[in-house]
Write a structure and sequence with these properties.
Layout (H helix, E strand, L loop, with lengths): L6 E7 L6 H9 L6 E7 L6 H6 L6 E5 L6 H11 L4 E4 L5 E2 L3 H10 L4 E12 L5 E4 L5 H7 L12 E3 H6 L12 H9 L4 E14 L4 H4 L1 H19 L8 H8 L7 H15 L6 H12 L5 H11 L1 H5 L3 H21 L2
Parallel strand pairs: 1-2, 1-4, 2-3, 6-9
Antiparallel strand pairs: 4-8, 5-9, 6-7, 6-8
Helix pairs in contact: 7-9, 11-12, 12-15, 13-15
Length: 338
Amino acid sequence: MSVLPRVTVLMSVRDGARHVRQAVGSILAQDYSDWEFIIIDDASTDETPLILGSYDDPRIRIFRNETNLGLAKSLNRGLELARGEFVARQDHDDVSAPSRLRRQIQRMDMDSDLVLLGTRGYQYDEETGLIREMLHPVDNVSIRVKMCYQNAFIHSSVFIRRNVLVENKLRFNEVLSATQDYELWTRLCDYGRVLNLSNKLVTYRWHGASISRLRSEEQRAVARQVSSAYIRRALPTMDAPDPEHIRQILSGDRPPAPNELTFVRALFDNLEKHAFVSSDEVRASYLAWASKWLDGQRVVEMFSRAGGRLLRSCRGDALRYLVARVGNAAARRVRMQE
């Protein structure tokens, strides 16, 4: 291991005795070993301190808050203590797959402009035993589009380039009562490329004590504020539709009304000007989004007119939409045309 670890795994926990051992164990089981694990015990009153104190691994660094500071302040304390080149989030009740850190650091090393990298994963409902896939968008453009109405990252999957946080004084927002992660990710989008690995490398636990379940209404209300602020930064002079209407049209639940189409075009135009977004990717994503309201033949004609270079930029969710509309064979023919 190097003098300073390449990765800081960051966790905050309060009264997490029921699940924290499994979460910590999933990091100890990683097939990549150059990490430190900073755990902030946010004044737990259960057996959490005893469990954390039982680990005899010098890579695990435990810090205890004397009073309950809350999630955002605890995570910010952890960021101040972090020494790694990258910060990997790990919630106390979630589980990381053994290859998670290795796969993420390999991908980050391939692209110095990549500042935020998540993964897909699973949601495990502890009450029903049901497991569902969490298939967040994977490409740079589709993620930015989804961030207009919803968090596009699983919190426990996030991997961040730490120097971007330090140099731009980016921290979790301690004023917000919820969705502080979503708000920070929207700001990180301004400083580089953002992606999700298609590999499912985390399991998000949904249980009676989880914040998402206990404070779902509060989370939705704050998330609407975050998405509105994100859109206002992108389109400061435009009167944007209601956040729920934005979700409906961008996710494909319904076709846009004329005034909403104006907003969507302005959004994609703004993305095309972004320093860390490829113009071809933006145009391909817009064509793929628009194609959802057309029959298959018109989709083929529209993409054929766009030209081969643009079509080959169609990837991630944009490519998925194209394939869904015209089928694999037609999509391959369209993408090969010059």
